[in-house]
UniProtKB/TrEMBL annotation, chain B:
Binding-site list for Mn(2+): 35, 64, 67, 135, 168
Sequence similarity: Belongs to the manganese catalase family.
MF GO annotations: metal ion binding
Keywords: Calcium, Capsid protein, Manganese, Metal-binding, Virion
Requisite cofactors: Ca(2+); Mn(2+)
Residues bound to Ca(2+): 59
Protein name: Polypeptide composition of the spore coat protein CotJC
Length: 74, 189
């Protein structure tokens, strides 16, 4: 994969905001956004058991949520 | 805030008194995929969408109000001088009993506008996809209204509005592309 599954941005922060600002907001950009039509013979998870638990047979469609904090932020 | 220009975005002319056409046009006034729903949906989503696409929602949401005004003008012109008998004949008897000649936010079948027509999920991708779907549904609705309308002047305005739906859908697609872009930190999985 050459794309990220989360994008973050820094929203505008006003001096007048009453709550301590969240400097960074993040949102999901799941893998299906980047696959116009899934290619034939895509990579599969090695075992049926793993695929069953992941919810998809295809590794390119798997989107772990939530991403671990280190991966997600910074 | 907004500045108001006292003119329509595109001229609205009506060739004949036709309350039945007004009954159909009401769909774009207070229907699920109508201009009111569109304007409120986009302007409300502005607050929780990344800064890069706030301006787009602002501009398109504002334009939807200009469209709402055009639809209102069409409906008003088509019905303002219709007699109660003509309204009953056109299937607008229930509307007349409830509202006289006033416009009201309901769909072609008379169901009142409801906030459940619009959505704000907070997830930027989900919200923009909803917006794209709404534009395509509005485009389709314009097509079906043009199909049942034989008023060439009204159809001219409706064709303009249909084209705007296409442009808006394209811009929302582009907004999704902007949000998909890998900016700031490149993180490869």
């Amino acid at each position: 994969m050459t794309y990220t599954l989360v994008k973050c941005y820094s929203p505008y922060i006003s001096k007048m905001d009453p709550c301590p600002p969240m400097l960074k907001k993040c949102f999901s950009t799941p893998p299906n956004l980047y696959i116009p039509f899934q290619p034939y013979n895509s990579e599969q998870f090695p075992t049926a058991r793993e695929a069953l638990y992941k919810g998809t047979l295809w590794t390119c469609l798997y989107d772990p949520y939530p991403l671990k904090r280190e991966e997600n932020l910074e | 805030m907004w500045y108001y220009e006292k003119k329509l975005q595109y001229p609205v002319k009506v060739s004949q008194c036709n309350p039945r056409l007004a009954k159909y046009l009401i769909e774009q006034y207070g229907g699920a995929d109508g201009e009111l729903s569109a304007a409120l949906r986009y302007l409300n989503q502005r607050y929780t969408i990344p800064d890069k696409v706030v301006g787009l929602l602002n501009d398109i949401g504002t334009e939807e109000f200009a469209h709402l005004e055009m639809i209102a003008t069409m409906i008003y012109k088509l019905t303002k001088d219709a007699t109660p008998e003509q309204l009953v004949e056109a299937g607008m008897g229930a509307h007349f009993v409830n509202h006289d000649h006033a416009l009201f936010y309901h769909n072609a079948a008379g169901a009142p506008w409801t906030a459940t027509y619009i959505q704000a999920k907070g997830d930027p991708i989900a919200d923009l996809y909803e917006d794209i779907a709404a534009e395509e549904k509005a485009r389709a609705t314009y097509q079906w209204i043009i199909d049942v309308s034989d008023d060439p002047f009204i159809n001219d305005s409706l064709k303009f509005l249909r084209e705007r739906e296409i442009v808006h859908s394209q811009r929302f697609h582009e907004a999704v592309e902007i949000l998909k872009e890998e900016r700031d930190r490149k993180k490869v999985f």
